Amino acid sequence: MKKALLVALALVVAALALAACGGSDSSSDTNAETQSQSGGTAESGGESTGGGEAEGGTAGSASAVDIEAADGSDLAYKQKSAEASAGKVTVNFTNPQPIPHDVAIEDSEGADVGKTELIAEDSGSVEVDLKPGTYTFFCTVPGHREAGMEGALTVK
Ligand SMILES: [Cu+2]
């Protein structure tokens, strides 16, 4: 009996914690991470001085962007656009095609920020440091970008 009560209490606390951090951040990934730690803070009253959320350290922490080349042999990515949080961003690229592709990122002035390896029937990733702004991701294989292998990356 007592155990059941504890489980019920834990559920309530978890629900409160979820509600507490739902407001300010749109990234569901980070919510899932903080959820397990912030059980205590949810009960400490209605005053929202911005507690709980900062616990994990650096604000706007790591995020990831997933980009995939089209199935078949189209010179295209499945994503035409992507979004990331400013800071360290891991770009995960999957290329199911036998044709080699990569994902390079350049800023709004055309400066290279980073790129993945050139891969075929494989996946790879690269970590880049991004400030808020608009970037372009594209394939560096000659002709591919022109054929449509590019998209917009918005960093907030
Ligand atoms: Cu390509």
Walk me through the structure:
This protein has a five-stranded mixed β-sheet. Strands 1-3-6 form a three-stranded mixed β-sheet, with no helix packed on it. A hairpin with a 5-residue loop joins β4 (104-106) and β5 (112-115). The protein is an alpha/beta fold. The chain has three helices and eight strands; from the N terminus they run ααβββββββαβ. The longest helix is centred in the first third of the chain and has 19 residues, at 2-20. It has two domains: 2-44, no CATH class; 63-155, Immunoglobulin-like (Sandwich). Residues 75, 101, 139, 141, 144, 149 line the site of copper (II) ion.
Helix content: 10-25%
Order of helices and strands: HHEEEEEEEHE
* CATH second-level architecture of the largest domain: Sandwich
What are the bound molecules? copper (II) ion
Low-pLDDT regions? 1-60
CATH topology heading of the largest domain: Immunoglobulin-like
Query: Quick one: CATH class of the largest domain?
Result: Mainly Beta
Write down how many β-strands occur, each being a DSSP E stretch of 2 or more residues.
8
User: Sheet bearing the most strands, described?
Assistant: 5 strands, mixed
Core attributes:
Immunoglobulin-like, alpha/beta, binds copper (II) ion, five-stranded mixed sheet, 2 domains, three-stranded mixed sheet, 156 residues, 20% helix
